[in-house]
Amino acid sequence: MSQEGCELFSHTTTSQDINMKDSSPAAAAEQLKDANGEIDESLYSRQLYVLGHEAMKRMGSSNILVVGMRGLGVEIAKNIALAGVKSLTLYDPKPATISDLSSQFFLHPEDVGKPRAAVTAPRVSELNPYTPVDVHPSNSITSNLDELKRYQVVVLTDTPLKDQITIADFCHENGIFVVITDTFGLFGTIFTDFGKNFTCGDPTGENPGTGIVAEIDSDGLVSALDETRHGLEDGDFVTFSEVQGMEGLNDSAPRKITVKGPYTLSIGDVSGLGQYKRGGLYTQVKMPKFIDFEPLSTQLRKPELMMSDFAKFDRPAQLHVGFQALQAFAEKHNGEFSKPHNDADASEVWKLAE
């Protein structure tokens, strides 16, 4: 991913690129957009194919804060810088340690003892001169939460649970998107809160379903040709084309469906649209989905867990408890997590989990 990301910003060299070399990152970022605020397609051509123009425009207007500059945090910061956001701010006043060098690829041995964010920011900014990279000025984010209002997205890594709750609740109340993620050995966790009435343009990411119509009866029941599974779900929307007899369906507004079986679906009232004769194609239309996210403090008590392996149905709930137990252990021991292969620490974590 790192190699491809670097290629993303090196495959095209223009006179504009040369003129930007001596300008500030903020000024260079503004030059990437034309008079209409459009993203420079020659620079972000590969990314535009994947994300689309709308997502790129939203990223180009986003100020993002990443907290925690250990292995996970710096990987996130690297990807955000390459993506081309309006600005990226890093926060981690903790001194770098020898162990950080194993995963934090922007740290050098001579950086040990220096604040992680301060030594990381200049090296992250080198990845993409068009994304300004700064260091959050405060020594404690929770001491002045109003400073977070300048950001559209806050990403928390390597953050104590009590601070996660404080920051996440503040962001939820002020319309700031929150992503909280951590890794513990072979296990990881991620929480997202994108506020109230968040618009998801494509809930599944799959290609729209299409099929051939075999029959449409007077009650609006549509049958697929040759008993081909339509693969649609209740609440999906479809449009029709090339229908003969019931021409009123062709190129009309998307119609919400009700699945009646693997080969049939209902499109509701079709009176006044004519009598179906033959032919026709149906095409799924991806409609925006509106989602209300709950704050972290609510989800900790009653989580909605994502299931990735149905063979281990109880695993997510166990990990949810285990991660909180680890955080509770760290809070009791000045931020230090339990040591590996230590029976006393393991016993204490187990009691906290219970």
Automatic annotation (TrEMBL):
Domain Ubiquitin-activating enzyme E1 FCCH residue range list: 217-286
One Gene Ontology MF term: ubiquitin activating enzyme activity
Record pathway: Protein modification; protein sumoylation
Family named by the database record: Belongs to the ubiquitin-activating E1 family.
Predominant location category: nucleus
UniProt domain THIF-type NAD/FAD binding fold: residue ranges: 44-200
Biased composition range(s): Polar residues: 10-22
Subcellular location: Nucleus
Name of the protein this chain belongs to: Ubiquitin-like 1-activating enzyme E1A
Residue ranges of domain Ubiquitin-activating enzyme E1 four-helix bundle in the record: 287-354
Keywords, in A-Z order: Ligase, Nucleus, Ubl conjugation pathway
Pfam families associated with the record: E1_4HB, E1_FCCH, ThiF
Location of region: Disordered: 1-25
